[in-house]
Amino acid sequence: MNRTKQIDVKIGTIVLIVFLAAWGLAVAAAAHAGVFQAIKPLYFGPLVAAGIVVPFLIYLLIPDVHQYFAKIGVYPLTVWHIWRIPAALAFFWYGLHNQLPPAFWLLAGVGDFLAGLNALPMLKGRASDDVYFRIHRFGFADFVVAVGTGLLYTLLNDPRMATIRELPMVLIPLFGVGISGASHLIAFDLLRRKRNEVSQEQMPRIRAAE
């Protein structure tokens, strides 16, 4: 039985890696071809949101996908967010070179840096569900602030926001943010389900004690 589960996880991981590689390459190819520069800036925000919502819907609607993430658990979904440290450095680099609006790169950069630092201790090993929830709650709040600020400056037609639609920065909102945002939502769902299961298991004991 354990061997079957292990094979399932390995196959699922391979499929996931192929999917993510194809996603990243598609974004890079489209950016190289000038697709994101050609579309109206106002449409860029919905693309970022779709990158979060679509993977989460796939997780909710396809049982095999849900079972895969239920097996691997919240830990790898949390470790992944260490990538936000180099993402923060990219925001700092472009911001300090006046290629991004100050409020945007400061909020996005500092938020990503702190989110990455929160996930960094996970390299030592697994943590409690409370720690996972704290890390994902902060990380998701950071995305809300960063995406909201970016959208604001897009609506204000700040020309410096064009940087976020070009390589290599475009990989952050249209690839990294999508994966990380979806991983936050999946982690919240897994933690909620686990908490509900624990509550259901404890209910008979509580009733018996009464």
In short:
By secondary structure, this protein is mostly helical. Helix content is 79%, strand content 0%.
Describe it for me?
With 210 residues, the chain is an all-alpha fold. The protein has one domain. Helix content is 79%, strand content 0%. It has nine helices and no strands. α6 runs antiparallel to α7. The radius of gyration is 19 Å and the shape is globular. The two termini are 38 Å apart.
Give the strand tally: 0
Distance between the termini: 38 Å
The coarse overall form would be: globular
SSE string, helix = H, strand = E?
Answer: HHHHHHHHH
Amount of helix: over 70%
| Integer count of domains | 1
Largest sheet: none
Share of β-strand residues: under 5%
- Radius of gyration (CA) equals 19 Å
Low-confidence sequence ranges: 1-5
Structure classification: mainly alpha
What's the mean pLDDT score?
91
